[in-house]
Amino acid sequence: MHAPAPLPYHLAAAPFTVHEARAASLSAGRLRAADLGSAGRGLYLPTDWEFELRGLARALSAATPGAWISHLTAAVLLGLWLPSWFAGCRELHLSKSKALPPARRAGVVGHTVLAFADEVMVWEGIRISTPARTWLDLARMVPLEDLVAVGDQLVRQPRPGLEQRTEPWATLPQLKAMIRRHPKLQGIVKARLAADLVRAGADSAPETFLRLALTAAGLPEPELQVRIVPGDPYSPAADLGYRKHRIAVQYDGGHHLTREQQSRDIRRDEAFIAAGWRYFKLNADDLQGGFRAAVRRVGAALIAS
């Protein structure tokens, strides 16, 4: 038995559609060879291919006319924050408009939805829901605090030089406009509550959870990215704080473990303390405890100031 002819490189490395196979002049017999498997109607997988969500999502959207990647899959591909139980999620969510028959494929969670043309985009060759629409779709799937954290991520200003974009994924008015468009969508009440809590300025989900923990305890809402010298982009900044009371709170996550970052953190910490601020530095242990002890300490400092 002869070994099958090698696949073109671009087809050997990822899932592909029957249309891509035809464009590469692959015969029907070649598609039945042992080194290929079917992933459903019009979709093929190299048998030695290791699962990679982006490649499979691209092929799946291309093989399903009128459909787009959505919900959890869209959030993962866009790099949006998700609760830890979704880590390594392999669910493939595919949406279609109500005018089309529902998506029915093995291993695919199909959705039939009302969506406007500007709620779907082409991103890295994949038809996918926009970040704002993805946020709205997540409303039925994640708790309120997590939905607020994703909203904070969408409206934050990207860091110059550190990210591949210069504008936020979305604005708060865009999120609220999305809500008004879909008043009957499952999870819409939660989305409305979340939109009222979304703020620009949090650089991570723990910062959002810390802010929500402070306000849930009845403390005033803190200023985000509070600088020692207001308006000075070179002045040291803490994640949040109360300028009137000269109280700053900093959450240091995993990226603060590098030597370079630790050096910057030390200079920032010393600057706040030298300027006479009460300075609280929190980490993952505080997050694990729901920031309860931290909230008590900050609350006591506010009373004492």
Can you tag this structure with a few keywords?
305 residues; alpha+beta; 4-stranded mixed β-sheet; 3-stranded antiparallel β-sheet; 13 helices; 39% helix; 17% strand
Indicate the low-confidence ranges by residue numbers: none
Cα-to-Cα separation, first versus last residue: 84 Å
Number of helices: 13
Shape: elongated
Integer-rounded radius of gyration? 24 Å
Task: Summarize the structure in words.
The protein is 39% helix and 17% strand. It has 305 residues and is α+β, with helices and mostly antiparallel strands. It has a four-stranded mixed beta sheet, with helices on both faces. The protein has a three-stranded antiparallel beta sheet with strand order 1-3-2. A three-stranded mixed beta sheet has the order 4-5-6. Strand 7 and strand 8 form a beta hairpin. The mean pLDDT is 87.
